[in-house]
Amino acid sequence: MSTDGWKNFGRYGANRDPGNVHGAVALAQALEDALERMIIDGGIRSPATTRRGLMARMNYLNTTAGGAQALADAGVTAHPSTLRAWTRGARSPRPENLEAVDTAYWNLRAANVLANPGALKQHLNRGGQGTRVEIHPINQAVVDAPRRRDNLRVRKLQVRYVWDAAVDALVDGNLGALEDVWDDVIADLDSDWGAYTYVGHIGLGA
Fold this sequence. Notes:
- The chain is α+β, with helices and mostly antiparallel strands.
- The protein has two domains: 3-38 and 119-204, no CATH class; 45-116.
- It has helices at residues 3-7, 23-41, 51-63, 67-73, 80-88, 95-114, 117-125, 163-172, 175-186, and strands at 21-22, 131-137, 155-159, 198-204.
- A four-stranded antiparallel sheet has the order 1-4-2-3.
- It is elongated.
- It starts with a helix and ends with a strand.
- Residues 1-5 have low confidence and may be disordered.
- It comes from Streptacidiphilus jiangxiensis.
- This is Transcriptional regulator.
C-alpha cells in the first residue's frame, strides 16, 4: 500500500473493515480497557453471594460518599435496620436485592476510579518505566491487492512520557489531543510510522 493510501485512508479499501481505525481511536479503547481492569482488579474479589463478599460491599457502600445514592439507584429500598443487618452479616438479602447491592458497589467503585484520573496516570507511568504498547496493523485482506503491505507485523514499544496527556485527552473526550499522542508514540517507529497511523488493535500491558 502506498504512502498516499495511508494519508487518504480508505482510498484503497482499508475502511471496508470497521475494525481498521485511527490509532487515536484504538488508543482510547485501550485506555478504557485499562480503566476497566483497574476497576475490577482493585475491587472486592469475594463474590457477593458469600457472607464475606456481601459484608465487604455493604461496608464500602456505607463508608464511601455516594453509597446511599448508589444503593437507591440500583433499586435497594430496604429499611436502614435491614441494611445494618446485611452489613454485619446477620441477614442475607433476597436474590434480587443481593444483585442490586452488587450493582451498586461496582457502579460506585467505577465512578470513583473514573473521578480520579491520576490513579490511571500513575498506573501507566509506572514510576517512569512506562507501559508496553502492542500495535496490530490494519487488516490488509480488505485492501485492494496491488496496494497491500503484507509485510506489516505486530510492533511492541515501551512507551513513556505520554500517559498524562493521553489520560487527560480521554477524560476530556478530546480526539484531536489523542491523535497528537498517537503521533508521538508511532514516531519511535522511524520510517515505518505512517503504516501504523491506522491500526487494527492496540493492547496495553497495564
